[in-house]
């Protein structure tokens, strides 16, 4: 049986993992700023720029699968520290690239920073009891604010030193943190159990992925996280193109989106513990449908043939209106990111790394696919707002699927004359959490709640 960690040990682990993830996320989104200068230097199209921005997201997404498995097997301390040092080396080597293909190859290495998310989730979750995991993971997930660090700080470094030196500064800071993490962090409370158990095969670790529920969670995360990353990358370019802003101003406004979309994840974790993750997901998707619909409306001029002549008026999204809507969208997406990951340690306490890795991978793929698609849509349609049109379709589909799944489960429960919810803490915690603790101690899998 594992000894319960003290509060000071929990806070130490949470602080180290959150700060490390913040730095990794700042590196992961570095092309949102230096990519604009590179595009100017190499005369790239929007499609080429979108691919360059999205390439690190691809690596960061795919790597989450095996990094999650390694964290379940070896623990977060070593995986996290070595990952940061390796990524720092890749960022430094990027500065020697001189052609577009070389930059794409370098961007693949930079993308390893994105895999840090699932390492931190598994490491952090191991330190906290189920009733506090939502809040703890919400605090950890606030490391997404690293994108705001890049959007706010990188433009000034870029103007002062150029993109190569900016990347080198990022690499140095990340390498130092990797060494610090290896020296200061401690093995998580699950380390003793991992050492005493026979290592599970890859197929055993992937067993939960047979459930459709896991892939539904992945679609949720495709929007709340993948679209967040995509917008964090795309917004500076969007603001420069639509409103004619210069890069430093565009970066600061983009930070107004990324900061709340990161920090309010803490609130989302607390709300998921307090009110239930299902309810928070409903709030997230409904608000996001409204925001993306309004943001997707392009500037339009109307002519009404009236009695005394034509009446002309124009509908256009002003910059202040845009900032308010993007801030609101970021706020609700942050709640949704926390709510999705509240599900995973509750349903799959012994497979947080594997299941969380797959969900994170699919979500991260949204951050790869969407910026590339935004660029393609710009080139094909010539409409800047086409990116929000696509996001509207995705979030509407996620809301419909979630509502259908919940209503289907409720009908089955009513027919069986029993009450269970999508997340059991909403109504009957005594039916689930003690069962989890029993199975965690015996090393067996608890039966999942009905979906």
TrEMBL record:
Gene Ontology biological process: nitrate assimilation
Entry GO CC: membrane
GO MF terms, alphabetically ordered: nitrate transmembrane transporter activity
Residues of the Major facilitator superfamily (MFS) profile domain: 10-410
Keywords tagged on the record: Membrane, Nitrate assimilation, Transmembrane, Transmembrane helix
Keyword Amino-acid biosynthesis: no
Membrane-crossing residue ranges in chain numbering: 12-36, 48-67, 79-97, 103-125, 137-161, 167-185, 214-235, 247-268, 280-297, 317-335, 347-370, 382-402
Localization annotation: Membrane
Gene3D superfamilies in UniProt: MFS general substrate transporter like domains
Superkingdom of the source species: Bacteria
Topological category with respect to the lipid bilayer: Multi-pass membrane protein
Chief location of this protein within or outside the cell: membrane
Keyword Membrane: yes
Family: Belongs to the major facilitator superfamily. Nitrate/nitrite porter (TC 2.A.1.8) family.
UniProt name for this protein: MFS transporter, NNP family, nitrate/nitrite transporter
Organism: Marinobacter segnicrescens
């Amino acid at each position: 049986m594992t000894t319960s960690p003290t509060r000071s040990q929990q806070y130490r682990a949470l602080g180290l993992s959150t700060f490390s993830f913040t730095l990794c996320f700042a590196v992961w989104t570095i092309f949102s700023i230096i990519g604009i200068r590179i595009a100017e230097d190499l005369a790239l199209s929007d499609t080429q720029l979108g691919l360059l921005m999205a390439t690190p997201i691809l690596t960061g997404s795919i790597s989450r699968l095996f990094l999650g498995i390694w964290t379940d097997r070896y623990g977060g301390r070593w995986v996290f520290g070595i990952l940061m040092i390796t990524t720092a080396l890749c960022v430094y080597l990027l500065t020697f690239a001189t052609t577009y293909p070389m930059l794409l190859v370098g961007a693949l290495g930079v993308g390893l920073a994105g895999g840090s998310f699932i390492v931190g989730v598994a490491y952090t979750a191991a330190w906290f009891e189920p009733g506090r995991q939502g809040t703890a993971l919400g605090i950890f997930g606030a490391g997404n604010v690293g994108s705001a660090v890049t959007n706010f700080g990188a433009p000034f470094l870029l103007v002062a030193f150029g993109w190569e030196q900016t990347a080198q500064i990022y690499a140095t800071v990340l390498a130092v943190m990797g060494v610090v993490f290896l020296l200061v962090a401690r093995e998580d409370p699950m380390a003793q159990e991992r050492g005493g158990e026979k290592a599970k095969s890859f197929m055993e670790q992937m067993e939960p992925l047979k459930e459709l529920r896991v892939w539904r969670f992945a679609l949720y995360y495709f929007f709340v996280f993948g679209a967040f990353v995509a917008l964090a990358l795309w917004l500076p370019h969007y603001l420069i193109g639509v409103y004619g802003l210069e890069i430093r101003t565009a970066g600061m406004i983009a930070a107004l989106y990324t900061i709340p979309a990161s920090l309010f994840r803490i609130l989302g974790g607390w709300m998921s513990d307090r009110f239930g993750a299902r309810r928070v997901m409903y709030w997230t998707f409904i608000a996001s449908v409204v925001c993306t619909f309004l943001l997707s409306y392009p500037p339009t001029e109307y002519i009404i043939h009236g009695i005394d002549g034509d009446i002309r008026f124009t509908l256009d999204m002003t910059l202040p209106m845009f900032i308010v809507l993007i801030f609101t969208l970021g706020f609700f997406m942050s709640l949704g990111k926390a709510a999705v990951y509240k599900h995973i340690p509750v349903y799959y306490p012994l497979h947080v790394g594997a299941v969380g890795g797959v969900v994170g991978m699919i979500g991260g793929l949204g951050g790869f696919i969407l910026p590339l698609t935004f660029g393609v849509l710009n080139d094909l349609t010539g409409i800047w707002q086409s990116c929000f049109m696509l996001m509207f379709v995705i979030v509407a589909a996620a809301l419909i699927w979630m509502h259908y799944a919940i209503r289907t489960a409720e009908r089955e429960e009513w027919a069986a004359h029993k009450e269970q919810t999508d997340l059991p803490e909403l109504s009957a915690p005594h039916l689930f959490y003690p069962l989890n603790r029993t199975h965690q101690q015996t090393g067996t899998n608890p039966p999942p709640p009905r979906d």
